[in-house]
Write a structure and sequence with these properties.
about 375 residues; Rossmann fold; seven-stranded parallel β-sheet; 13 strands; binds uridine-diphosphate-N-acetylglucosamine; binds uridine-5'-diphosphate
């Protein structure tokens, strides 16, 4: 009898990293695949569902404006639990470190349903950076019966926590599967990513820096410093344009709108769908970000990435020399950007296409491992 696999996700990055798994499981007749979105994110999730062609079987529609972690987690636990009671899956598959992933694992555990964790074993060893994701990952790691570690580094982190070695598998990160998939889609259908034409015209001849920022631990002082760094770079460098799709979290929007209004060479734009964001990375000389996923994608596309965090649970890019941690100190961010803009040797040392995170076949491995686990 086909195993029932309940795939649970809720935010933009989970959807991007989970759609290759959903595609692979659905293409494999050995599974009954049920998808459940918490819709912890709404607009940004729907952008990914649309491009990936996924119509969820269950949609909890949980996003509320400026939601709190406890209110969200409570709603997730009861909502996801109800879906599990109705579907009675053999496996619950969760991805990464969000509230949805953590609550999905916990609701499954309360029902003694086995959990498979995609992107397992990432650790910064600091429970407040990233916050609350480091603890979410540890909770999921305690519960999961199968751990799909993207790299040998993440597998080693799990072994160091005494996770049974036979349950840990290095699969690569599914984000590389997603990036390759969307790149092929754009090649076949360029109109999917043609919506940046106006930005491209407006900033013709300028050197583009792509920016994203949204981390909860940076709310307050960190985001303000990031905004001031962007302002300083924009004012000092008319040869540069900064393109910043702003996260819809009101805590992010308010700071960026206030600090960066009226700068001719800064474009604050709505979140881009995945094909357009891939296009933005391709157009950019440098990526400046506090995002997890962008740290993995930029090296794959040969773009230097400056990471506005104090620590990272993704040291592979830093070790490979394609990513650098610059924290959230304004002067440091500005200095590092100027160095990359002006020092050709420093730039080319970082601008190597390098893929420590995967080879694009992670979802196929995950599917096989789930089948073998029975
Ligand atoms: C969440 C994840 C974080 C991940 C990030 C990716 C947790 C605890 N955090 O953080 O790990 O890096 O997603 O973006 O799970 N909003 C919208 N529209 C959207 C999405 C969000 O308006 O499509 C606004 C809403 O006001 C919402 C707020 O953003 O309440 C915060 O969303 P939430 O998912 O709680 O936190 P993120 O900071 O996005
Ligand atoms: N992304 C996107 N549109 C945007 C900004 C980001 O599609 O406007 C993608 C990006 O390519 C990456 C993912 O969203 O795959 C990262 O999501 P986010 O930064 O919200 O979360 P994190 O990775 O930090 O958890």
């Amino acid at each position: 009898m086909a195993q029932t696999v309940l795939v649970v996700f809720g935010t933009r990055p989970e959807a991007i990293k989970m759609f290759p798994v959903v595609h692979a499981l659905k293409a494999d007749g050995r599974f009954r695949v049920v998808t459940c979105v918490s819709a912890q994110h709404r607009g940004m999730l729907d952008q990914v569902l649309a491009i990936a062609g996924i119509v969820p079987d269950h949609d909890l529609d949980l996003m509320r404006p400026d939601q709190t972690l406890d209110g969200l987690t409570a709603a997730l636990l009861t909502g996801l639990g109800r879906v599990m009671d109705a579907e009675k899956p053999d496996w619950v598959v969760v991805q990464g470190d969000t509230a949805t992933a953590m609550a999905g694992a916990l609701a499954a555990y309360y029902r003694k349903i086995r959990v498979a964790h995609v992107e397992a074993g990432l650790r910064s060893h600091n429970i407040y950076h990233p916050w609350p994701e480091e603890v979410n990952r540890k909770i999921i790691g305690t519960i999961a019966a199968l751990h799909f570690a993207p790299t040998e580094t993440s597998a080693a982190a799990l072994r160091a926590e005494n996770v049974a070695p036979a349950t840990i598998h290095v699969t690569g990160n599914t984000v590389i599967d997603a990036l390759q998939w969307v790149t092929a889609r754009i090649a076949a259908e360029p109109a999917l990513a043609s919506g940046l034409a106006e930005i491209e015209r407006r900033f013709a001849g300028k050197r583009i820096i792509g920016v994203t920022s949204h981390r909860r631990e940076n709310f307050g002082g960190g985001l303000e410093a990031i905004a001031q760094a962007i302002r300083t770079i924009a004012e000092a460098r008319p040869d540069v344009a900064l393109v910043f799709p702003v996260h819809p979290n009101p805590n992010v929007h308010a700071v960026m709108d206030e600090a960066l209004a009226g700068l001719a060479n800064v474009a604050l734009i709505e979140p881009l769908d995945y094909p357009h964001f891939a296009r933005l990375i391709a157009l950019s000389e440098i990526m400046l970000t506090d995002s997890g996923g962008v740290q993995e994608e930029a090296p794959a596309l040969g773009k230097p990435v400056l990471v506005m965090r104090e620590t990272t649970e993704r040291p592979e890019g830093v070790e490979a020399g394609t990513a650098r941690l610059v924290g959230t100190d304004k002067e440091r961010i500005v200095t590092e950007i100027f160095t990359l803009l002006d020092d050709k040797a420093a730039y080319s040392a970082m601008a190597r296409a390098h893929n420590p995170f995967g080879d694009g076949h992670a979802a196929a491995r995950i599917t096989e491992l789930l089948h073998n686990a029975g």
